[in-house]
Amino acid sequence: METLVEEAVAKALREEGGTAIRLYVATCTESMAPLFVGLRAGTADRTADVDFYVQSVRDLWQADRPLSDAAARVHRLEQFPELQPSEEGITDVADTYAFFAALVLRHALSANGSGSAAEAVACGHAALTAMGLLDQNVAGAAFRAQEQRLQSLSVSGDVAGLWEASFESGRERFRAVLARVAGSSG
């Protein structure tokens, strides 16, 4: 499978492994988190899912060691409606970005627990795909380039400000998606 993740980033993940993988997937997930949390908060019967998502993102930042329950978290996440097959597919703007946010977390948890660089790359690829889609639908946007910068920064060894940059980029993405949701319902 061809991936959107830059080769230098994928190489760093393969060579560094461990903490580098865990930091990388935490970065990807943090920047996608508002798309799940913001789009699902207040939805009937989704409070536990939103809480689980928030707790998982928070726990992924403990990058010095893998999560002991990562596999169980993957299993729970795979039960989310966003990751269930559907004959109709996903056509709603909010559902599309909530799906990508859930998919990023799914790959992040798997990579965190297994140390798999391939799962980490899949995590990054899902985030880049979502941001490429957002760029196509928001005039003048550069969310994919922003995601690529964050991914490169996360494996650079200089991670000062990484959480803050990931958090802020997530807020910007959420605002753009909210504008799309408002535009598609009006």
Polypeptide structure, described:
By secondary structure, this protein is mainly α. The protein has a single domain, classed as YP_001051499.1 fold like. It contains eight helices and no strands. The longest helix is centred in the C-terminal third of the chain and has 24 residues, at 162-185. It starts with 6 loop residues before the first helix and ends with a helix. The mean pLDDT is 94.
Number of domains: 1
CATH class bucket: Mainly Alpha
- The H-and-E topology, N to C, reads as HHHHHHHH
Class based on secondary structure composition and strand pairing:
mainly alpha
Helix residue percentage: over 70%
Question: Number of helical runs?
Answer: 8
How much of the residues is beta strand, in percent? under 5%
Care to count the β-strands? 0
Most strands sheet: none
Structural shape: globular
Concise account of the structure shown:
The chain is an all-alpha fold. The protein has eight helices and no strands. It has a single domain, classed as YP_001051499.1 fold like.
Topology:
Elements: H1 7-16, H2 18-40, H3 47-60, H4 70-77, H5 93-114, H6 117-137, H7 143-154, H8 162-185
What tags apply to this protein structure?
single chain, 186 residues, mainly alpha, YP_001051499.1 fold like, 8 helices
